[in-house]
Write a structure and sequence with these properties.
By secondary structure, the chain is mainly alpha-helical. The chain has three helices and no strands.
Amino acid sequence: MIIKNHNIISPRPLLLYNYSIATIIMLRSAILAATIASTAAFSPAPTGRASTSVSESKADLQNLAAKLNPAVKYFDPLNLAEAEFWGESNEATIGFLRESEVKHGRVAVS
């Protein structure tokens, strides 16, 4: 008995060969809807930010230090609160230092 090659090359995929056009469109629409719904899971959720008032003068830092640590109070041995980095104001320098402290503190902890 001689067996010949029975592979038939079909112009349409075999799974969709016996379905009507309306069924194929409905299946493709369902797949598209599922794909869009799954991508929504990876988008960030909108969050409201709480407003925070930041004190950025030397007097504000001294008052805050006295409240947070009454034993030591204000401690600035390098006088960074009086410095002005990159030609900016004193308040901008204090803001930069506070932001850097939070940023690098979080990196050091993680």
